[in-house]
Amino acid sequence: MKKLFKITAVIMALALVACCFSSCGEKKSGKIVFGTNAEFPPFEFITSKGIIGEFDGVDIAIAKQIAESNGKEAEIQNIEFDSLIVALNNGQLDAVIAGMTITEERAKSVDFSIPYYTATQVMIVKEGSDIKAAADMKGKTIAVVQGYTGETCVKKLGFEYETFKKGTECILELVNGKCDVVVIDSATAEKYVSDNEGLVIVKDESEFKNEEYGIAVAKGNTELLDQINAVLEEMLASGKIADLSAQYIDSL
Ligand code: GLN
User: Would the CB of 185 count as within 6 Å of ligand 1?
Assistant: First the structure.
């Protein structure tokens, strides 16, 4: 009898533990933590009245929509672009939304959503520059942002370059005559050119191919990836992402 009592007690204790574990597992967090680098207008930037705290931009609006469609809140963590994938993989972030180009290299360590925006690298030079194509950058002082696909493109061309932490730092170098050209994503380049007189964009479509932006999640996080893709599909089909891009680019 005593033995039966003991066994029953053990079973009940185990059941209690199992129940606690399963309910802990079910208790989903009410927010999605997105990592970004808010130095990339019009996709992400800091402003006095942002749409999530101080953050605003096309990506921030998309992040907000993804969270809301899933009955959650979006939290934005602003970290260096180069550290985003590391932060995602050590669990600090649920997703990265940062105008991040889907590349084979990055896809080795993260899973990407469906593409949601097509961009290309462009060159920003001073008016009157003799740089008319990518090949003309040879022997010039080139500035890129560290870890951006702009750096990869210039590296591939085999030219020397200097790296900076932010796009604005590259632009300052250009404006101050310390470099001849900045290689950066097209929409962001438009913003910098509209903010700084005397700068122009030079395109070279034969050298700089289209790039597609995707949202990254940790490898194997299919649950979140499916939720993200469902919202992106809907926003792409309804033209919402195109509207947002036009709206934010127009307001530059
Ligand atoms: N699209 C570029 C990249 O993925 C730049 C992204 C960014 O600056 N946020 O490297």
Answer: yes
Point out which residues pair with 118 in neighbouring strands. 212
Rounded distance from Cα 237 to ligand 1 centre (Å): 24
Does ligand 1 come within 6 angstroms of the Cβ of 37? yes
Rounded to 5 degrees, what are φ and ψ at 39? -130, 30
Query: Cα angle vertex 182, ends 41, 251, to 5°?
Result: 25
Containing structural domain, residue 96: 27-117+212-250
CATH for 136: 3.40.190.10
45-83 pLDDT per residue, tens: 999 999 999 999 999 999 999 999 999 999 999 999 999
44 shares its domain with 65: yes
Both tokens of 176, joined, read 């101050």
